[in-house]
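QA checklist item 7 of 12: single-chain prediction sanity check.
[x] sequence parsed
[x] length recorded as 345
[x] structure emitted
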Amino acid sequence: MAAINTTANGGMGGGTRIAGDIDFEADGKQVTWLKLPFSVHRSAYGHIAIPIAVIKNGKGPTLLAMSGNHGDEYEGQIATTKLIRSLEPKDIKGRVIVLPAANFPAAMAGMRTSPIDDGNLNRTFPGNRDGTPTWMISHYIESVLVPLADVILDLHSGGSSLLYIPSALVGVSRDKKRTAKLLELVEAFGAPVGYVNLGGGGDRTSTGAAERAGKLRLGTELGGAGMVGVESTRIAEEGVRRIMEHMGIAKPSALTQKKPKTRLMDVGGDDYYVYAPEAGLFEPYVDLGTMVKKGQVAGVVQFVDNPKREPVPAHFPRDGMVLCKRVPGRVERGDCLFHLATDRS
């Protein structure tokens, strides 16, 4: 069995405190739960049970497919849950590790962040074995799961507050060969839009975890608005399959033969984003997919508590295509209203 290090020495650099009976080296299909120790009033010696699956058949590449990094992003959770039920060892050559509800407390609450510690899992890497549950989970992912993988597929959506054109994305890399491999993953996934995050994924994210380990990481933004979209869920399910085929884990199928065209784009720094200038009720003037110009009015903040007050406009800081928009109408100053993408040159 592949031992899970649970040594007591060290803080962030020590072994994980999350236990489990899973054998990452055994052929076959294992579906079980990780045990995150969680002692509370109602359960002195309890644990948080985090579902995990490993499907393995001989030697070959390893895909780590995870979702529920943010608990209110549902398409990926549906896709990975169905994958666990449907994928059998005979279907593959290599290994697929599936973490369908990575931040389990957040996923069960349908929240972006954990209701236990308010932790945003994708802002806590590399984590801390002695931290609160969210930090313990990110430490486990980075110290145990990421080193086992060749490719990390982290399925996100817009969650409760944002709606995206279904997209696959990667972080920027100075290594041209690495960038080429990442863009191959983007195109293999087959989402309508594939973009490079020129602002960088940040070292506190799963992108940072992958980069520290020298692994390839592909992310997604698959719809959102607090829904499970029919089309975005289909894109998620087929995209996971295409990545397995691209890696040589699964045999080529009709999906790889009929791969949709992906529009390759960039998302840059702060000028790609529009933020609410005031608190109030936001009235958008454009929708997803609209091509906009620098200085164009994106919408206005209305003040229903003081109808005599003139609305305050928000403007696009640059040219681009509207890739993402805010869902809730009520806004606070600083809320993200839109973000743009530009075609790669």
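[x] summary fact logged: The radius of gyration is 21 Å.
[ ] second reviewer sign-off
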